[in-house]
Amino acid sequence: MIQLKNIIKTYENKGQNIEALKELSFDFKKGEITGIIGYSGAGKSTLLRCINLLEVPSSGEVIIDGINLNKLDSKDLRETRKKIGMIFQHFNLMRSRNVAKNIAYPLKGSGLSKKEIEERVDELLDLVGLKDKKYSYPSQLSGGQKQRVGIARALANRPNLILCDEATSALDPETTVSILKLLKKINKELGVTIVLITHQMEVIKEICDSIVVMEDGFIKEEGDVIDIFSRPQAPITKRFLSSIFNTEKINNYLENIVVKPEEKIVKLAYVGSSTEEAYISKISRDYNVEASILFGNIEIIKETPIGNLIIKLGGSEGNIIDTIEYLNKNRIYTEVLKDGKKLI
Ligand SMILES: Nc1ncnc2c1ncn2[C@@H]1O[C@H](COP(=O)(O)OP(=O)(O)O)[C@@H](O)[C@H]1O
Ligand SMILES: [Mg+2]
User: Fold this and answer.
1) Ligand 1 center to residue 75 CA distance, Å?
2) Ligand 2 centre from 185 Cα, in Å?
């Protein structure tokens, strides 16, 4: 539904060119929540702002539902933008207006009567759980409540797409979870497509269907969250996932484990139903290897278990190789972390 084609964005700053986006293409799927992750300066905000042409790409096309936004005149672009809501890290509320007036602001010029606007505002307040704050001012609200107002305002014109720029980065972990739950509800119940930016893998893990990993103005990796979480390829993706899977701590722990020449330490990653099979007992029995579990963890992502298990395999070289082959065939992805033979 949203197609970005060969987008390049170069900023000019005091005679210097900054290449924020260095040519990238991507299709965002309708009805999904897509998370864009990257470190500061990666080009995430620029990319998000290119989607509604708040930032005009230096070259490339933005196509939403078959309409090429680059070709719209300013009036049509304004109309299209009304169907795209936006949510910001620092909420961007008007301090001098109460909650109801902030939410009603995008409905100016919509042709709705005063009564209809009031009804819409009440509906939105109900949706975001802020009925009792209708006449409060932003300064009287907590961060989480402010973001709920921001979300209600973004929904005022019944958009089919919402863009979130670090919507939870200014919030504490508990409030973050409650705001993410609200976004998920909006996605599920209203069918709104959501594109969100974050620098935290936890946010992606909580609600996203797809993920785009950005670095240095490029998309380094993209795909379904379950695929990327179980088999990350790009080094930057692995780095982002290391906090979730405790990679660094595991590596430190493995440093001190003695591996004999006939042993290998192997990481197994598996998704969904593989977790229910008795693979460990099967490999010991059928392949004549000793398998001992050193470490394991399971994350539930989109209601699917993703497991990482670190085991020590002992036995003849041939048997270990056959075991690894058997596991790979059964969609258990393996990586040899330490090979006793190579340590001699
Ligand atoms: N308006 C601007 N003028 C000049 N440079 C900018 C502007 N906005 C962003 N940049 C630069 O573009 C790069 C990408 O920025 P940004 O898209 O904000 O990244 P992110 O959101 O991932 O932190 C950075 O090097 C940033 O300094
Ligand atoms: Mg940013």
Assistant:
1) 27
2) 25
Which residue minimizes the CA distance to atom 16 of ligand 1?
43
Closest among 90, 94, 88 to 106, alpha carbons compared: 94
Q: What residues of the chain score a pLDDT lower than 50?
A: none
Q: Give the percent of the chain with pLDDT over 90.
A: 79
Pocket of ligand 1 (CB under 6 A): 11, 13, 18, 20, 38, 40-46
- Nearest Cα residue to atom 14 of ligand 1: 43
Q: Which of 124, 133, 200, 120 is nearest to 164 (CA)?
A: 200
**Choice from 10, 11, 54, 236 to test ligand 1 binding pocket (greatest atom count within 8 A of CB):** 11
Residue 37, strand partner residues? 198, 213
Task: Give all domains of the chain, ordered by start, each with its CATH number.
Answer: 2-241 (3.40.50.300), 250-343 (3.30.70.260)
Q: What is the pLDDT of residue 281?
A: 85
DSSP state letter for 1 = -
Residue nearest to atom 7 of ligand 1 (CA): 11
Per-residue model confidence (pLDDT) at position 274: 58
